């Protein structure tokens, strides 16, 4: 019996123009995870920043497994608090984040990932999730929708 | 009776080269606060990013009062989870963050503040808190100490 076709397009591979990802050794990945100071839910905050432009794209969460996988694969994996499972950014939407650097903050409870963002980071189709602000007396989106959110396969991003 | 002298230097005033801060109206500030989706502790994550350079300086937390005060004063005020009170960044250390823009993310639980950072953001005397990463097999600081942390009056920053 043939497998049913996988209708989701394959996530984009790492662009040739990016530096290749050389995964840190297992010991190094373990040292990185050991330096985390997760909250009572086992999570650290993770900021994604675009290489080159410096745009802050999104803030999400990682557990130890997501951090280790991100370092191993060179693709950013978060932990979805709502779905309570690993969230391989772009696995369904194609909006992959290729990792260039991963930094830890001074108290170990937040990470900064420098990424090459395929397409858009926000499930609304905007480049960055931080696209809302005051327009006069009201909060409104201040940045354009670049991709049809219906084509991003919902929230999984 | 004379007041005892206040030995802490006055925090720096907003540099003349920056655009003046025009506080949003009380209604606009209330609309901004109403758009927040704080966590069960009443907090949202707040990222500070340096104007011009785009450096991600730190991640901390704000409650509704901190957000409203930040918008009113044009100086970034966080909420300290450890001290359980407002944390007017730079009040004791002089390492003030002058606000240029405040954005909200798509689900209202994270903020992005574009700031002019006086001096350094990190209590260790480094420009950014995100200064740690892998150096070979170990996690180490990858950025230099620019200011003596003993002169920053401890953690309050």
Automatic annotation (TrEMBL), chains A, B:
GO molecular function: magnesium ion binding; phosphoribosyl-AMP cyclohydrolase activity; phosphoribosyl-ATP diphosphatase activity; zinc ion binding
Protein name: Phosphoribosyl-AMP cyclohydrolase
Domain of life: Bacteria
One GO cellular component term: cytoplasm
Keyword terms, alphabetized: Amino-acid biosynthesis, Cytoplasm, Histidine biosynthesis, Hydrolase, Magnesium, Metal-binding, Zinc
This protein's pathway: Amino-acid biosynthesis; L-histidine biosynthesis; L-histidine from 5-phospho-alpha-D-ribose 1-diphosphate: step 2/9; Amino-acid biosynthesis; L-histidine biosynthesis; L-histidine from 5-phospho-alpha-D-ribose 1-diphosphate: step 3/9
Entry annotated with the keyword Amino-acid biosynthesis: yes
Region: Disordered, residue numbers: 1-23
Binding residues annotated for Mg(2+), in chain numbering: 105, 107, 109
Similarity-based family: In the C-terminal section; belongs to the PRA-PH family. Belongs to the PRA-CH family.
Biological role stated in the UniProt entry: Catalyzes the hydrolysis of the adenine ring of phosphoribosyl-AMP.
Compartmental location: Cytoplasm
């Amino acid at each position: 019996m043939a497998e049913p076709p996988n209708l989701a397009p394959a996530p984009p591979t790492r662009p040739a123009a990016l530096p290749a990802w050389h995964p840190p050794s297992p010991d190094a990945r373990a040292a990185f995870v050991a330096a985390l100071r997760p909250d009572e839910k086992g999570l650290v905050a993770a900021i994604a920043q675009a290489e080159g432009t410096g745009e802050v794209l999104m803030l999400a969460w990682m557990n130890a497994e997501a951090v280790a996988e991100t370092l191993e694969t060179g693709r950013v994996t978060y932990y979805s608090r709502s779905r309570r499972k690993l969230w391989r950014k772009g696995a369904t939407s194609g909006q992959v984040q290729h990792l260039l650097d991963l930094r830890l903050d001074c108290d170990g409870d937040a990470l900064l990932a420098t990424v090459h963002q395929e397409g858009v980071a926000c499930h609304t189709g905007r480049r960055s999730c931080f696209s809302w602000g005051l327009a006069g007396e009201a909060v409104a989106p201040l940045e354009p929708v670049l991709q049809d959110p219906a084509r991003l396969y919902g929230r999984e991003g």
